[in-house]
């Protein structure tokens, strides 16, 4: 058998690339290298702008030309870094040499030794990961989550008055409205989205073991912690003053925990919608040309929600692993995080793919109010809760002498079917006030939804 041409190993880079490609701009190896170049360039500009070690600030033209190495970063730079790394066997050193080549091209060899000055590789890497992850989350993942939340909010408002039989433990239970049930997910996801939006992205810039030792040796008079803080914050990150060689990755653990939490709420949403489809509460809208089953032509499978389930599970598994392993580094540094952090894009990618499927899936279902009504009308026994509660209130108010109303309704309804006529006849026999009796006689399963509709207003 002949070998295939080179193929993507991950489905995120193959079958599903279109849905997740935006993440590649930040969380690919090229995206990471572009961020590394950015950090190296900005540190060099910082040092020269502060006239460190007798250097002079670059002209505006020189500054723009140097920053163009970042803004114009493309295939030529990707290829050159690959060539350099083949010799250096060190990815960050290759980035340093690329910047030095640019300085030489601009006639700035005099400041070449300020490239990567007093830096350990992790000073560059931790800031680069913080920049790329921050951009990926705030510019790609979080907007997609917000789009899904907005779509759910729209459906919640549309269906706020659509009564449905609830199911607790899979059994018929006190009715709700479909809109209120969707609103529950909107509320949950919005809280998590707010937490993700407020996540800190920390950075360190303090040398080989976090002590500023080389910095101090080069200039004992400089306030290196203040310089480090100013530089890190100039990149839009939060400064971490106390680290080993690495930034401790706690912010990453917090972020991935929050994304995994969102994944699990979305998984709950996907399984609930799948179940509502199986109950007939939602009809699936046929998509032109689509095939549900290779042998059963009538079928429309809920593939969007099934695909979302699987990808959310994969994402959470990987993000959980990242969150648990990244917070540990032996003594002052080990290299386990180098490999694990290269999979951040995979973890976020599976989540982004799931969000895309949920967004599409929500457009492919329609509420079947007739099915909702049939289920409600077939389960009058759910009014047993209302009846025994009203009797309790009547007993307390002195308008009834019934003993143990719960047991009375349990005997009438538990494990039994009760129709409208039978329940009405039962209510007529109750020793309760006429107003209470009238309220109970007017109740229907479809009308027994409490404040479900108005609760949707809590979405704002």
Automatic annotation (TrEMBL):
<dbReference type="GO" id="GO:0004018">
    <property type="term" value="F:N6-(1,2-dicarboxyethyl)AMP AMP-lyase (fumarate-forming) activity"/>
</dbReference>
<keyword id="KW-0456">Lyase</keyword>
<dbReference type="InterPro" id="IPR024083">
    <property type="entry name" value="Fumarase/histidase_N"/>
</dbReference>
<dbReference type="InterPro" id="IPR000362">
    <property type="entry name" value="Fumarate_lyase_fam"/>
</dbReference>
<dbReference type="Pfam" id="PF00206">
    <property type="entry name" value="Lyase_1"/>
</dbReference>
<keyword id="KW-0658">Purine biosynthesis</keyword>
<dbReference type="Pfam" id="PF08328">
    <property type="entry name" value="ASL_C"/>
</dbReference>
<dbReference type="InterPro" id="IPR022761">
    <property type="entry name" value="Fumarate_lyase_N"/>
</dbReference>
<dbReference type="GO" id="GO:0006188">
    <property type="term" value="P:IMP biosynthetic process"/>
</dbReference>
<dbReference type="InterPro" id="IPR013539">
    <property type="entry name" value="PurB_C"/>
</dbReference>
<dbReference type="InterPro" id="IPR020557">
    <property type="entry name" value="Fumarate_lyase_CS"/>
</dbReference>
<comment type="function">
    <text>Catalyzes two reactions in de novo purine nucleotide biosynthesis. Catalyzes the breakdown of 5-aminoimidazole- (N-succinylocarboxamide) ribotide (SAICAR or 2-[5-amino-1-(5-phospho-beta-D-ribosyl)imidazole-4-carboxamido]succinate) to 5-aminoimidazole-4-carboxamide ribotide (AICAR or 5-amino-1-(5-phospho-beta-D-ribosyl)imidazole-4-carboxamide) and fumarate, and of adenylosuccinate (ADS or N(6)-(1,2-dicarboxyethyl)-AMP) to adenosine monophosphate (AMP) and fumarate.</text>
</comment>
<dbReference type="InterPro" id="IPR008948">
    <property type="entry name" value="L-Aspartase-like"/>
</dbReference>
<feature type="domain" description="Fumarate lyase N-terminal">
    <location>
        <begin position="14"/>
        <end position="308"/>
    </location>
</feature>
<feature type="domain" description="Adenylosuccinate lyase PurB C-terminal">
    <location>
        <begin position="329"/>
        <end position="449"/>
    </location>
</feature>
<comment type="pathway">
    <text>Purine metabolism; IMP biosynthesis via de novo pathway; 5-amino-1-(5-phospho-D-ribosyl)imidazole-4-carboxamide from 5-amino-1-(5-phospho-D-ribosyl)imidazole-4-carboxylate: step 2/2.</text>
</comment>
<comment type="pathway">
    <text>Purine metabolism; AMP biosynthesis via de novo pathway; AMP from IMP: step 2/2.</text>
</comment>
<protein>
    <submittedName>
        <fullName>Adenylosuccinate lyase</fullName>
        <ecNumber>4.3.2.2</ecNumber>
    </submittedName>
</protein>
<dbReference type="InterPro" id="IPR047136">
    <property type="entry name" value="PurB_bact"/>
</dbReference>
